[in-house]
Amino acid sequence: MQAVNLRIFRLAYWLVRLRWFAILGIVVAYFTAINFLHITIWTLPVYIIIAFLIFLNLISFSLLKFLQRSNIKKSLRIVNLIINFQISTDLIVLTFLLHYSGGVENPFIVYYIFHMIIGSIILSTIESLLQTSLALILVGAMTFLEYTGILKHYPLEGFIITNMYNNLTYLICTGLIFVTTSYFVVYITKTIILEARKHELAYLEANLKLKQKEKIKNEYVMRITHDIKGHITAIQSCINTLHNKISGPLNVQQEDFVNRAHSRLGILNKFISDLLNLTQRKLQQKQDKKYFDLKQTIEESMKITENYAIEKEISLTKKIDTSINEIYGEQSSIEEVLINLLINAIKYSPSGKNVTITAEDAGEAVLIEVIDNGIGIPEGETGLIFNDFYRASNAKNITNDGTGLGLAITKHIIESHGGKIWVNSKPDKGTTFSLLLKKGK
Amino acid sequence: MNKSKILIIDDDTDLVASTKLFLQNQNFEVTSAINTKTGFQILKSFNPDLIILDIIMDSNLEGFNFLNDLKSDNSLKHIPVVMYTSMAKAIGVNMRSAIEDAENFPKTRFVEKSGDWDELLFAIKDLLQ
Q1: Residue A311: which domain range?
Q2: Domain boundaries, chain B
Q3: What is residue A135's predicted lDDT score, i.e. its pLDDT?
Q4: Same domain, A294 and A162
Q5: Is residue A420 situated within a structural domain?
Q6: Shortest CA distance to A423 belongs to which of A366, A384, A365?
Q7: What is the band of B94 on the pLDDT scale with cuts at 50, 70, 90?
Q8: Alpha carbon of A13 to those of A47, A49, A132, A196: distances in Å?
Q9: Which site from A37, A98, A316, A427 is most exposed, i.e. has the minimal number of CB atoms within 10 Å?
Q10: In which element (H, E) is residue A430 found?
Q11: Based on the number of CB atoms within 10 Å of its own CB, is B101 exposed (0-12), middle (13-18) or buried (19 or more)?
C-alpha cells in the first residue's frame, strides 16, 4: 500500500515538473511565433496567463511538500484533488491561450491530447473521462462562441491564410475526429496503465510472499539447528570425558579414535554455531547499536587472535590513524567481524608471514583493512567467497575445519551497519579485506 | 577444605552425566535433578553452594521461572546460578545484562552450553569466590 501512496506523490510532483516545461514551452512558442514567424498575437493575455500558471504551480508544489510532511493517510485524497484541479486548470488555461491566438485554427489544439494521456495515467477511469469531456466542452464552447461571433476571433495573421473558424463543414469534421481521437486515446492509455499496474501488483505480491517464505525458512533452519546443537553438545560432552581422560586412561588405539571423534565434533559444532549465528542475524530486527571505541575494539580483537598467530609464527601488526576513535554500531558484532577476518588471514598464511590490520579516516567513514601475504583467493572466486557455505578451492586443501559461513556472517554484519566490504586478492601473493564503516548513525 | 556443592538441573541426562563426572573430577560434590520440581526438593536437603540451571526443559521458560522463584526467596537468593543454555547467544546482550548480577538476580551468569567445560568452570569459580 505504501508503494501506491508514494506513487501518487511521485506522479503529482511529475505533473508539477511537466508544468514548468510547459510554461517554458509556451514562452518559446510565442517568442518564435512573434519574432521569427512574424505572426500577430495579442501578447498581454499570454503574459497574464503565464504569470497565473507560475503562481498555480508554486502553490501546488508547496501544498504537496506540506502534505508529504503531514500524515500521508489523510493527504492522499487532497493530493488527488490537487492533481484533478491542476489538470482542469491546465485545460482552461490552454483554451484561453488558444482563444487569444487563433482559436480552433491554432495547431496547438492537439496539445489537449497530452492532458488526456496524463490524466489517464494518474487518475481513475471516471476522472480521466470527466477531464476529457471537460476538454471537449471547452474546445466546443470556444469554437461555438467564436463561430457565432459571441466571442471575438483573434486570427493568427501571417500564419493562417484562409479563415477556418467560421467554416461549418470543417468544424464538424475536425470536431468529430477530435472527439473520437480523445476518447480513444483515453481508452488505450487506460488499458496500458491498468495492465502495467496489474503486473506491478502481482510483482509486489510475489515479492512479499518470497520474503515471508524466506522468514519461514530461516525460522525452520534455526529450529532444526538449535535441536541438533543440543544433541551435539551432549555427545561432545560425553566424548570429552574420554578425551580429557576423566573417566580413566585409554589405550593408544582408543585414544586415536576418541581424538578423531573429538576433532570432527568440534568442526560440526562450529558449523552448527555459525549456521545458528547467521540465521539469527537474518531474523533479527533490532541491533544493540551505540557509540563505541573502534581503536579499542581493534586492539581487543588482536588480543583474542594473538595466541593463534604466535602458534602459527605469524606476526600481527596494526596501523591505526590517531584520529580513529568512536563509531556507531554494535560493538560485539564488529569485533566478531574483525576476529573472523584476522583468524582467516592467519589461517591461510604460511608461517613467518605478516598479517596487518589498518584503520584510516575516510571522512564520514572509517576504512579498515586486514592484509595478509597468504595463499590468496583463486581468480574467479573472489565474487563467491561471501556466499553462504562457499569455501575457496585452495582453502579446502589447507584445512577442513572451515564452515563457509564466516564471511557470509561478516558481510551480513557489515551490511546491517550500512557499510561495505570487498576483497582484493592475488593467488600466492596475499589477500586484503577492506571494510568501510560509517562513523555516525 | 570442604568440597563445594553443585546442583545441576537439566533434562539432558547425557549432558548431565558427563558434566557431573567432570565437576566431580574438579573436586566438587555434584547432584542433579531432571526438572525444576525435583530440583526444588533436592535444594532443601542438599543445600548447594551453586546451581547449574538449564532454561528450556518441560516448558520454554521453566529455567527462568525457577530462577525467578529462587531469587525472590530471601533465604535462597544468595545461591549463585549459572544459566547453562544453548540459547545464551540468542538471548542477546540486553536481556543478559538485565539479569546477570542485577538487583533482583544477584550472582547470575549465562553460559552457552558447549562440549567442553572451560566457560562453565570459569563461571563457577568466579561465582564461588
Answers
A1: 290-438
A2: 4-128
A3: 94
A4: no
A5: yes
A6: A384
A7: low
A8: 24, 21, 21, 21
A9: A37
A10: strand A430-438
A11: exposed
What cell was used for A189?
492509455
What is the Cα–Cα distance from A300 to A295, expressed in whole angstroms?
9
CATH number, domain of A313, equals 3.30.565.10
Judging contacts by C-beta atoms under 8 Å, the chain A residues touching residue B94 are: 288
Q: Which residue has the cell 530486527?
A: A285
Residues in chain A: 441
Nearest one of A96, A91, A102 to A136, comparing CA atoms: A91
- The C-alpha cell of A60 is what? 501546488
Residues of A in contact with B93 (CB under 8 A): 288, 332
Do A85 and A15 contact (CB within 8 A), yes or no?
no
pLDDT category at A1 given cuts 50, 70, 90 is very low
How many contacts (CB atoms, under 8 Å) link A and B? Answer: 59
Cell 543478559 -> residue: B96
Residue A427 is assigned to a structural domain of this protein: yes
pLDDT value at residue B51: 97
- A178 occurs within a structural domain: no
Could you say which of A110, A139, A166 is where a domain stops? Answer: A166
With CA atoms as reference, report the closest residue to A281 among A145, A441, A413.
A413
Neighbours of A326 (CB within 10 A): 14
Question: Where a domain ends, among A137, A166, A195?
Answer: A166
Render pLDDT for A345-360 as a digit per residue (tens, 0 to 9): 999 999 999 999 999 9
Cβ atoms A46, A100 nearer than 8 A: yes
- Residue-wise pLDDT for A400-427, tens only, equals 778 889 999 999 999 999 999 999 999 9
Interface of B with A (CB under 8 A): 12, 14-15, 17-19, 21-22, 25, 86-87, 89-90, 92-94, 113-117
Q: For residue range A264-322, list pLDDT tens digits in order.
A: 998 888 888 888 888 888 887 777 889 999 999 999 999 999 999 999 999 999 999 99
Q: Could A241 and B18 be called an inter-chain contact, meaning their C-beta atoms sit closer than 8 Å?
A: yes
Query: pLDDT value at position B91?
Result: 66
Grid coordinates given for A419: 557499510
Residue bearing cell 576418541: A258
**Residue A48 pLDDT > 50, yes or no?**
yes
Q: Which of A233, A288, A332 sits opposite B115 (nearest CB)?
A: A233
Q: Which ipTM score applies to this complex?
A: 0.85
SS (H, E, C) A205-222: HHHHHHHHHHHHHHHHHH
Total structural domains in chain A?
A: 2
Strands of the sheet containing A315-320, edge to edge, are A315-320, A354-362, A365-372, A430-438, A420-426
Annotate A211-224 with b (16+ C-beta within 10 A) or e (fewer): eeeeeeebeebbee
- Cβ contact, residue pair B21, A241, below 8 Å: yes
Query: Considering the domain B4-128, what is its CATH architecture?
Result: 3-Layer(aba) Sandwich (3.40)
